[in-house]
Design goal:
The complex is a heterodimer of chains A (424) and B (504).
Chain A lengths: L8 H11 L4 E3 L13 E3 L4 H14 L3 E4 L16 E4 L6 E5 L4 E5 L4 H8 L4 E2 L11 H6 L7 H4 L2 H4 E7 L5 E5 L11 H5 L8 E8 L1 E2 L3 E9 L2 H12 L7 E6 L6 E9 L1 H15 L4 E5 L1 H5 L11 E6 L5 H15 L4 E5 L4 E6 L7 H12 L4 E6 L2 H4 L11 H11 L15
Parallel strand pairs in A: 2-4, 3-4
Antiparallel strand pairs in A: 1-2, 5-6, 6-10, 7-11, 8-9, 8-10, 12-14, 12-15, 13-14, 13-17, 16-18, 16-19, 17-18
Helix pairs in contact in A: 1-2, 8-11, 11-12
Chain B lengths: L1 E2 L15 H15 L4 E2 L2 H5 L15 E4 L3 H14 L3 E4 L16 E4 L6 E5 L4 E4 L5 H8 L4 E2 L12 H7 L6 H4 L6 E7 L5 E5 L10 H5 L8 E8 L1 E2 L3 E9 L2 H13 L6 E6 H11 L9 E9 L1 H17 L4 E4 L3 H12 L1 H4 L6 E4 L2 E2 L5 H14 L3 E7 L4 E8 L6 H18 L18 H4 L2 H14 L29 H10 L1
Parallel strand pairs in B: 1-17, 3-5, 4-5
Antiparallel strand pairs in B: 2-3, 6-7, 7-11, 8-12, 9-10, 9-11, 13-15, 13-16, 14-15, 14-19, 17-20, 18-20, 19-20
Classes of the chains: A alpha+beta (424), B alpha+beta (504).
């Protein structure tokens, strides 16, 4: 839906700006959402302002795209329309931190780094990895990003205890609470997690914190063939060593693959576990205790603007098949593939660097979907010419119900229209 | 022993013409399922009049014993045809009246659907029918070195379907999370009678996390007919400690010290003197003599880690005034320690003819203040309260003791129980940590949530169940009229109104 032709652009901007202390402006080239240029950008500084802003947007019939730090704007399909970008950059406060309760109340625009800087003084952490560094909490939750440590700590789904959102009609709703354990009412935080901003604007969250481990150790093992690497990862995931991460990585055109394992705990505990882990990894090639920073860099996804990023989920026993499919795809379609991800959780990322042949990507994705039995292969990011050739989401269970949920929350389909599954 | 609710029994509303659609439904169900699976006889229907919260009773209009998903789908479709509400019931152990039947509706019982369809330890998954008993999943996984982590106290009899509906917790959810963290996918019958799947065997299924909304929705979004659950690797080592303290304040300080040191035990449970007295009378668990409070702390994980952490936990217990610390030497001793804790609810029957089991949550750091306030509230009304709780995550289970034959005692006990919830909210907590809202606590929801909060939650309800056929009257005090759009009444733009006209 476009803005009313009877309202001039200047009048729209005035109306928007009035709700956010003047923090509204015309959009520039850097504000494009997956290539779609918006007309205005507004930045509320409170939930009340967000509510007023979204009421104004509703009055004006504007389409709205929520934005955190903009690290993942290239993820998801381009919106059909994006009149107004609502930036949460002024919603960056850590509102409340109760160290004794391991809980933190945070505004959605706060970066994960900022939250961690705040809580680290109490020996605590927000244990969310950042595939794209500098991300806001809201953006990370809305696109449900995760990294190696999801194996132990879970994902945004597990760590967001409560949420305050502003609906498309401007109404403000809170669900969940500030306590870890709570079953009163529907868990709207889970519904909004991974919704790509299509159900409303999240302005505040309650997140769970974890104590910082006293000792950490990353181990790396190289396997000459992918099957052995996948088997080793499965052995570790099924062991009693309680690893915090079991990662697998196969770089472009490599014949073999690496397995990385993170152990966290007490000093003596980690040392004892590491000795047994080496036996379990069981590779003659090499097993090394690597630099912690190098290990932590595994959380990053190196994805260029013209690269394609596919998230593949499989049951733990399916990791080997994905590795084989990736290897086969390289020779079959001439499409270089980089694979890394949590073999311990069954969540892998495949990066296809930009190639001349755009049609190779749909073929690779189709192969990945064939092997991802019981899981999925979703194209998170792709250049426009590739996106035009591929069904980004693949089959989605419960799509009819999802459309009904969207219709209830955003009956006019003004929130990030088209960015989500099934054109939602 | 009877348990009493915290509020008044909801009135049985009977439509004058209710008999006709129910009779027709019974006729159709018999034709489909045979006489044996359809219960119309009043005395037999009466055996289903309550769940684990025995003080609320409603005799269901009709009872159907479901054998598979197709049956449930067929019955739900008939309910849609005839505008008859339905309520799902697993083992009927819930403590908030979530499976309280509807007088003019059908109770769909899933307890016959007890097949474990698949156990795949390597993939760390099991697929089970909704009537499967919680502990049976663990029994099936145990030979492979795995177990099912959520462990509500009723785990020997409660069903997975009920666990999914209530998002059941348990003592070990401090470390391992709740049912919602252990269910990857479900097959369910939606309130309009469609059989659908939500989630995938792998995590992070694409699309909205509808499964996250369904788990814990207390049967208001449909009936789960199959669940794919996570299996957890059995820990290499388990250390169970029992510590006796002079007071709950000391035991609370110990809990804070342990958590503050960055240790994450699998469980930290507390019982006060009255709860200990009851447990001793019931199961002779042999807790430390003269304890004003006991803590049960359990650590699990790799042996090297558990060993290092157990030493530290013992030191914290010691430093905060534990006068006796015992460590279970074997599984039998461990079982005895847990027996006292797990029997606590039923055990208070030994020291009081009647009691209310309350379930509230507070931030852990508020524990001393809230316990003192509870004591004051109880004292003022001449009522005794025994306290049993998951100290690690601030989930209180105060047991309000009274004698119903004493005039006014029931009312005073209910007052105390309600006051406890008010205290939980005042201190930033929740009205329920694991028992659910059900029929019992719907009246308290407006104290915890605003109208807009509840309205927004019910948008989900409207998407799944616009006609309010699935477990109506539970969770929400006031049903939302689906299709009504509050917040859109004022000053809509003409174009928007034009758009709206199509929607209405």
């Amino acid at each position: 839906m476009a803005a009313s032709p009877r309202t001039t652009d200047a009048a729209v901007l005035d109306e928007l700006a009035a709700t956010v202390d003047g923090h509204a402006q015309e959009a520039g080239p850097d504000d494009a959402v997956a290539g779609v240029p918006p007309r205005w950008v507004a930045a509320p500084a409170s939930t009340e302002q967000a509510s007023a802003l979204l009421r104004a947007a509703a009055r004006l019939g504007l389409t709205v795209v929520p934005r955190g730090r903009g690290t993942a704007l290239a993820w998801g399909a381009p919106p059909r329309s994006a009149d107004l970008v609502v930036s949460t950059e002024r919603l960056g406060r850590v509102v409340e931190h109760n160290p004794g309760d391991l809980v933190c109340v945070v505004e959605a625009g706060a970066t994960i780094d900022a939250v961690n800087e705040h809580v680290v003084t109490h020996g605590q952490q927000l244990a969310l990895d950042q595939p794209l560094p500098g991300a806001s909490l809201g953006g990370s939750v809305s696109t449900t990003r995760s990294g190696p440590r999801r194996l132990l700590y879970g994902t945004p789904r597990d760590q967001v205890l409560g949420v305050t959102m502003t609906r498309a009609d401007g109404a403000v709703a809170t669900a969940g609470s500030k306590v870890v354990k709570n079953v009163a009412g529907y868990d709207l935080a889970k519904l909004l997690t991974g919704a790509y901003g299509t159900l409303g604007l999240v302005t505040r969250m309650v997140v769970r914190l974890y104590p910082l481990p006293r000792a950490r150790m990353w181990l790396q093992a190289w396997y000459t063939d992918p099957a052995s690497a996948a088997a080793a990862a499965l052995r570790v995931a099924g062991s009693q060593l309680a690893p915090s991460a079991v990662e697998i990585r196969r770089t472009v055109s490599a014949s073999g693959a690496d397995v990385f394992v993170l152990l966290e705990g007490t000093g003596p505990g980690v040392d004892g576990r590491a000795r047994r882990l080496v036996d379990l990894l069981d590779t003659a090639t090499q097993t090394t205790d690597i630099d912690t920073e190098e290990g932590d860099r595994l959380a990053r996804l190196a994805v260029g603007e013209d690269d394609t990023l596919v998230k593949v989920t499989v049951p733990l026993t399916g990791v080997g098949a994905v590795l084989r499919a990736v290897q086969a795809a390289e020779s079959r379609y001439g499409a270089p593939c980089h694979l890394q991800g949590s073999a311990g959780a069954g969540v892998l990322h495949v990066v296809l660097p930009a190639v001349d042949r755009a049609d190779a990507v749909p073929a690779v994705v189709a192969d990945l979907r064939r092997v991802a039995v019981g899981g999925s292969a979703v194209v998170l990011q792709a250049p426009a010419r590739v996106r035009a050739l591929v069904d980004a989401w693949g089959p989605v269970n419960g799509l009819a119900l999802m459309r009904r949920v969207k219709d209830e929350f955003d009956p006019d389909h003004r929130f990030a229209p088209g960015r989500f599954v099934g054109g939602i | 022993v009877t348990t009493h609710p915290t509020g008044s029994v909801p009135a049985e509303v009977t439509r004058e013409d209710a008999g006709a659609p129910l009779e027709e439904l019974a006729r159709r169900c018999r034709a489909l399922l045979g006489d044996e699976a359809v219960i119309t006889d009043e005395a037999r229907r009466r055996t289903y009049e309550c769940d684990g919260l025995a003080a609320y009773t409603v005799v269901p209009g009709l009872v159907v014993l479901a054998s598979d998903a197709a049956t449930i789908r067929a019955v739900v479709r008939m309910c849609n045809d005839l505008d008859v509400p339905f309520v799902a019931r697993g083992s009927g152990t819930g403590l908030s009246g979530g499976a309280l039947p509807h007088a003019d509706g059908v109770l769909i019982v899933t307890s016959r659907m007890r097949d474990i369809l698949d156990v795949d330890p390597e993939a760390q998954r099991a697929v089970v029918e909704p009537g499967v008993i919680n502990l049976d999943v663990t029994a099936a996984a145990k030979p492979h070195g795995y177990y099912y982590a959520p462990d509500p106290s009723s785990q020997q009899i409660c069903s997975i379907g009920g666990n999914v509906a209530e998002n059941s917790g348990g003592a070990h959810c401090l470390k391992y999370g709740f049912t919602t963290n252990h269910v990857l996918a479900v097959q369910m019958v939606t309130p309009d009678g469609e059989l659908t799947r939500l989630g995938t065997t792998a995590p992070d299924a694409p699309g909205y996390d509808l499964l996250g909304a369904v788990v814990g929705s207390e049967g208001t979004l449909g009936i789960v007919t199959e669940a794919t659950v996570r299996l957890t690797r059995a820990p290499e080592a388990v250390v169970t400690l029992l510590a006796g303290f002079r007071s709950t304040d000391d035991a609370g300080a110990a809990t804070s010290a342990i958590i503050g040191a960055g240790l994450v035990p699998a469980a930290i449970e507390m019982m006060d003197a009255l709860a200990i007295e009851a447990a001793e009378k019931a199961v002779a668990c042999g807790y430390p003599d003269g304890a004003g409070a006991v803590l049960v702390a359990e650590l699990d994980g790799p042996a090297a880690e558990v060993e290092a952490q157990a030493g530290e936990v013992r030191r914290h217990l010691d430093d905060t005034g534990a006068f006796e610390i015992r460590q279970a030497e074997d599984d039998a001793q461990r079982a005895l320690i847990w027996k006292g804790r797990k029997s606590a609810f039923a055990a208070v029957g030994r020291i009081s003819p009647d009691y209310i089991v309350q379930d509230g949550v507070i931030p852990r750091t508020e524990l001393p203040a809230v316990l003192r306030a509870i004591e004051q509230v109880a004292h003022d009304r001449g009522i005794r309260v025994a306290n049993v709780f998951h100290a690690g995550d601030g989930n209180l289970h105060p047991l309000v003791l009274f004698d119903a034959t004493e005039e006014g005692a029931t009312e005073r006990a209910e007052e105390v129980s309600a006051q406890i919830l008010a205290l939980c909210l005042e201190h930033g907590g929740s009205i329920t940590g694991e028992h659910g809202v059900g029929a019992d606590k719907a009246q308290y929801m407006p104290q915890m949530f605003s109208d807009d909060d509840l309205d927004t939650m019910q948008l989900v309800r409207c998407a799944f169940d616009p006609h309010h056929l699935s477990n109506p009257g539970k969770v929400f005090p006031t049903p939302r009229l689906c299709g009504e759009r509050p917040g859109r009444r004022s000053g809509a733009h003409p174009l928007q109104e034009a758009g709206l006209a199509e929607i209405f």
